[in-house]
Specification:
GO terms for molecular function: maltose binding. This protein is of the alpha/beta class and 447 residues long. It is built from 18 helices and nine strands. The protein is 41% helix and 12% strand. The longest helix is centred in the last third of the chain and has 18 residues.
Length: 447
């Protein structure tokens, strides 16, 4: 699951905190990397510290891969610390005592990391070592750089697609998953089951945009919606796809009834637990990442389910098969004591095919190089294969990098809550005000 089990919907408070911390970190010394630090000599004993937010099974998986690195580099001592989130890493940078290698699950902060220099520019290392970035899909390259500065490398990816319950499909007389959004809407209504008192027993598809991974950034690509205008300003009100996106969800909310849907959501289990509503057969279809296959294997191995690309707008059938991707990123913080040694480890974890495959098999994320994707050592079943195919699609999408912690996503989620609850009556005007809010926030951030 890797980055999967850490929500990417970040609070404005957290984004502001990180902005402040990184702003301070920029004054603590050290400049932009222009020359790569040399690798340690083979007989030079060196210690490299690695901080990540991995824990339990995931941390064990990472540490096993690090054991493989140590076997190839016996002069290295690698100190791996889990449960270290971005707040802790950023405060360590601010305090001048960062780890040599930082692993983050929050690509929302990538723009801040790169533009501030809090994470060092890896360009000189990539150029020196002639690293083939063409091995990495375009969308993944996009979310690991900001304005031409590559301060991170991808370390596995999350890819989002449709999960559906085959038993519920059979009960409703539906033979296969939807491919268009109109089919999704129709099937959602057919699959929904109500209790005698009118409450929802099974939801065909949950149209709440804060439910699990039913988030704007995961769903919007299937409407063909774009976040920004050509000049980089917010463009939701200018893109008709966003109106269709919100209208589609509002109509399905109205089908359920806001109060009944709220009651259903209040009783839904935690997203990353055995009580997940899809795993319990209470939701017939949902959008989620490849890592859900590992949760199902662990908690409900007998669940009769399938996976497929998420449906797309009826007038854009050529989009079918694509999806949204994000993932874990890894870099070298400003002030790292052993940057040359740190790069050796970063390079190993992100470009060595066997290392990537071993970590992908352990954590059940998608490996981020083409050679790892096609490795015969990669464990793939029918349901996981769907996400490899989505990842390989030429129209794979990621969110645009932002200097302000992805605040535009949080603002959009909050707007969705107001609109779907009926608080916003004029959608066009609401989207115009949303654009103004996002642009004003960007201006205050100095962008």
């Amino acid at each position: 699951m890797g980055s999967s089990c850490r929500p990417r919907h970040l609070s404005i408070l957290m984004a502001t905190l990180v902005t402040g911390l990184i702003g301070t970190a920029c004054t603590t010394g050290g400049g932009v990397t222009t020359q790569p630090a040399p690798a340690p000599a083979p007989d030079e004993q060196v210690t490299v510290s690695v901080w990540s937010n991995f824990a339990h099974r995931e941390l064990n998986g990472l540490n096993k891969v690090l054991d493989g690195f140590r076997a190839k580099h016996p002069n290295f001592t690698v100190e791996s610390q889990g449960s270290q989130d971005d707040d802790k890493i950023t405060q360590a940078i601010r305090g001048g005592n960062p780890p040599d290698v930082a692993i983050s699950f929050a690509t929302d902060f990538l723009g801040q990391f790169c533009s501030s220099g809090a994470w060092q520019d890896l360009g000189p290392y990539l150029e020196r070592d002639a690293v083939d970035l063409d091995q990495i899909p375009d969308a993944v390259r996009d979310y690991t750089q900001y304005k031409g500065v590559r301060c991170a490398m991808p370390l596995l990816a999350d890819v989002y697609g449709l999960y559906y319950n085959k038993e519920l499909f059979d009960r409703a007389g539906i033979s296969g998953p939807p491919k268009t959004l109109s089919e999704l809407r129709e099937m959602a209504e057919r699959l929904t089951e109500f209790n005698p008192d009118g409450s929802i027993r099974v939801a065909g598809f949950v149209p709440d945009l804060k439910f699990y991974n039913h988030r704007p950034q995961m769903l919007a690509p299937h409407w063909g919606a774009h976040w920004q205008r050509a000049d980089g300003t917010s463009g939701l009100s200018a893109d008709p796809a966003w109106r269709e996106f919100f209208t589609w969800h509002k109509e399905l909310v109205d089908f359920y009834g806001r109060q009944r849907l709220s009651q259903f959501l209040a009783s839904a289990g935690q997203q990353y637990s055995a009580d997940n509503a899809f795993q319990q057969g209470k939701v017939a279809m949902m959008i989620d990442g490849e890592y859900r296959t590992a949760f199902i294997d662990e908690f409900t191995p007998d669940l009769p389910y399938g996976t497929a690309p998420f449906p797309v707008a009826d007038d854009q059938p050529d989009r079918y098969g694509t999806g949204y991707t994000t993932g874990t990123i890894i870099g070298i913080p400003r002030g790292a004591k052993n940057p040359g040694a740190a790069w050796e480890l970063v390079s190993y974890l992100t470009t060595d095919t066997d290392a990537l495959v071993e970590l992908a098999n352990s954590i059940k994320n998608v490996p981020t190089t083409k050679s790892a994707l096609t490795s015969p050592k990669l464990s793939v079943d029918e349901n996981f294969r769907t996400f490899l195919e989505i990842f390989a699609h030429p129209r794979l999408v990621s969110s645009p990098a932002s200097p302000n912690g992805g605040a535009y996503v949080k603002f959009t989620e909050d707007f969705a809550t107001r609109y779907l609850s009926g608080e916003v009556s004029d959608l066009d005007e609401g989207l115009r005000k949303l654009d103004e809010q996002i642009n004003a926030h960007n201006e205050l951030s100095g962008n």
